[in-house]
Amino acid sequence: MNAVEILFGDGRYLFLWRGLEVTLLLTVFATVIGLVIGLVIALLQQSEWRPLAASKSLRLQQWRPLAGLANIYTTIIRGTPALVQLLIMYYVVFGSYRGVPKLWIASLAFGINSGAYVAEIIRGGIESIDRGQVEAARSLGLSRWQTMRYVVLPQALKQSLPSLISEGITLLKETSVVGWIGMNDLMRGADNIRFQTATAFESLFAAALIYLGLTTLFTRVMRRVERRLRASD
Predict the structure, then answer these.
(1) Burial of 1 (0-12, 13-18, 19+ CB in 10 A)
(2) Could you tell me the maximum CA-CA distance found in the chain, to the nearest angstrom?
(3) pTM value?
(4) DSSP 203-222
(5) Based on CB atoms within 10 Å of each CB, which residue in 29, 43, 58, 161 is the most buried?
(6) 65-83 confidence digits (pLDDT tens)
């Protein structure tokens, strides 16, 4: 049995095609969720709210609960494998709600995972903005939130864009583990071909080529974006 017959015989290529659709949908949904969560967490990390500022204890005066919670989230999520988080989301959080589509469960799990990395990327972008711009905006009468919204955040997101695209590429590859909860993604499609034909190389090589093609495409987009950003500076 040659490679063409293995992949295209009996319409087996449809396993890869349908799996690719699932992989792309999952990546898009998880990316959107991750961006929203990451932006919120990054802003919480910048929070200066100190509810115990009137305390006699210097340590309590400096306590920033919102920033602390954001840092705990990023530490836990970045310190545990995405696969473990996916299994916890599927078997524990949604263990009693089997009516929820697996696509949404996986999107939420990967979105939460990606959000921690996105938050760190945006935080780095925020902290790279010259402090003088913040002081100038505040001296013009802008509040801390207005300064963040109109001065700091637009520049931070612009600087963070290449890294955010890289995170999207990483997320695309990380979704290859969703077969653990029974989703028919690209890797599961390759496995289905392997089960039917009792051969592994052709189907797995085809899946690898598809992933390589997607990541190459996104990488070229990222480089083009970087060039345009440099040109606009």
Answers:
(1) exposed
(2) 79
(3) 0.90
(4) HHHHHHHHHHHHHHHHHHHH
(5) 43
(6) 999 999 999 999 999 999 9
